[in-house]
User: Which sequence fits this backbone?
């Protein structure tokens, strides 16, 4: 993937997340599953050819998910893992020493009227953080009544991608449990913290 300066990456992320986005979640049965949430956000992505801006990570995940839904084999190096019980899904794409991970999961909110959905993109080289152009952690709030999810700010914390001393930051969504793992990638090694979920927001 193409690399941009850190400042430009942050600018792109800020612009992308500033516009409030509402997405309809279609499903069968009593309630949506992680597969329904995942397909809602991926199928909503459309390449803006006029602006010539291709979100390579989301486009790759969408193409793989389309193949998966059709029962077709995935491309070499691609893998989709869906854990319906725990409300977690991840698309992984490996090429030589590089790994792209697109994680998705949701939490039931304490009011029992909403769900919080997270979409997380991160890239690695040789097992270490190697930020790509479209790495990000974004959140959507799903309304059980309207069956729509709307983009929202991270509840309880500010998403950051770099520390003051220049370390890259990545996030890992929970497949087991409810908490997010926050990792700082320093030259001397990585430092991790836990963002704990209390039914309404996260906190360290």
Assistant:
């Amino acid at each position: 993937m193409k690399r941009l300066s850190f400042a430009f990456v942050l600018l792109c992320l800020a612009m992308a997340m500033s516009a409030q986005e509402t997405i309809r979640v279609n499903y069968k049965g009593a309630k949506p599953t992680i597969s329904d949430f995942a397909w809602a956000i991926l199928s909503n992505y459309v390449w803006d050819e006029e602006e010539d801006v291709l979100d390579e990570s989301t486009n790759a995940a969408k193409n793989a998910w389309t193949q998966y839904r059709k029962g077709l084999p995935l491309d070499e190096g691609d893998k989709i893992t869906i854990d319906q019980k725990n409300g977690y899904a991840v698309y992984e794409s490996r090429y030589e020493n590089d790994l792209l991970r697109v994680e998705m999961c949701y939490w039931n909110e304490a009011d029992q009227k909403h769900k919080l959905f997270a979409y997380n993109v991160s890239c690695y080289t040789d097992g270490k953080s190697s930020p790509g152009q479209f790495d990000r952690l974004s959140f959507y709030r799903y309304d059980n009544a309207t069956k729509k999810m709307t983009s929202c700010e991270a509840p309880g914390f500010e998403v950051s991608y770099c520390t003051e001393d220049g370390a890259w930051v990545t996030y890992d969504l929970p497949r087991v449990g409810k908490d997010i793992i926050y990792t700082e990638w320093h030259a001397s090694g990585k430092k991790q913290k836990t963002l704990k979920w209390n039914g309404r927001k996260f906190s360290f």
Notes: The helical segments are 6-18, 34-44, 56-69.
